[in-house]
């Protein structure tokens, strides 16, 4: 059984993330999307909210499950029997950022990192840019799954605490 891990902050989960998860799900028996908890970073969404939004967005992908982790990802992968990590790349900047982590994870636990090229429609999309644009009144609907878009607008409009 081949299991792949798609880790990230996912604050929030974008259509760029969805593209990577969908393609991973077509190539592995199971995909675990893991929200990595960073206690030093206050997000727009709580970890529970992020998990619910990812689960709703990926409900049509039966071999995808959503989880959370706090700590070294290689420990999580060892616990879950996962040997492959998938990272989406949007640019050479992403590549420069990801390579040292891939190398470190390989040395720590023989974890293989596979890079997946982003959908060209979303190479400019990041969770942080989407939040900034939304807070300043720009239209972020084209970059988000519908359920995530509604949740972001609810946060921005003060219906959920930001
Ligand atoms: O969506 P992000 O914020 O770019 O995701 C980065 C993330 C969470 C995947 C990265 O920070 C990470 O791997 N954190 C887990 C802690 C860990 O294992 N650190 C060592 C990396 S070599």
Automatic annotation (TrEMBL):
Pfam families hit by this protein: CTP_transf_like
GO biological process, one term: coenzyme A biosynthetic process
UniProt site positions, description: Transition state stabilizer: 17
Chain residues that bind ATP: 9-10, 17, 88-90, 98, 122-128
Subcellular compartments: Cytoplasm
Cofactor(s) for this UniProt protein: Mg(2+)
Domain named Cytidyltransferase-like: residues: 5-132
An annotated GO cellular component: cytoplasm
Binding site for substrate: 9, 41, 73, 87
Pathway: Cofactor biosynthesis; coenzyme A biosynthesis; CoA from (R)-pantothenate: step 4/5
UniProt superkingdom: Bacteria
Purpose: Reversibly transfers an adenylyl group from ATP to 4'-phosphopantetheine, yielding dephospho-CoA (dPCoA) and pyrophosphate.
Family note: Belongs to the bacterial CoaD family.
HAMAP family reported for this sequence: PPAT_bact (MF_00151)
Protein known as: Phosphopantetheine adenylyltransferase
Organism per entry: Gordonia araii NBRC 100433
Taxonomic placement: Bacteria, Bacillati, Actinomycetota, Actinomycetes, Mycobacteriales
Gene designation per UniProt: coaD
């Amino acid at each position: 059984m081949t299991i792949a891990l798609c880790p990230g902050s996912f604050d929030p989960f974008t259509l760029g993330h969805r593209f990577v998860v969908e393609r991973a799900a077509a190539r592995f028996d199971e995909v675990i999307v893991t929200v990595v908890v960073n206690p030093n970073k206050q997000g727009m969404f709580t970890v529970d909210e992020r998990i619910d939004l990812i689960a709703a967005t990926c409900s049509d992908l039966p071999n995808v499950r959503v989880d959370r982790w706090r700590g070294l990802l290689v420990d999580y992968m060892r616990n879950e029997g996962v040997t492959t990590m998938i990272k989406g790349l949007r640019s050479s900047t992403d590549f420069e950022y990801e390579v040292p982590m891939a190398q470190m994870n390989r040395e720590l636990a023989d974890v293989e990192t596979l890079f997946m090229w982003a959908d060209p429609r979303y190479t400019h999309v990041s969770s942080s840019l989407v939040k900034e644009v939304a807070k300043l009144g720009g239209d972020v609907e084209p970059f988000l799954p519908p359920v995530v878009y509604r949740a972001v607008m609810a946060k921005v409009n003060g219906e959920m605490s930001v």
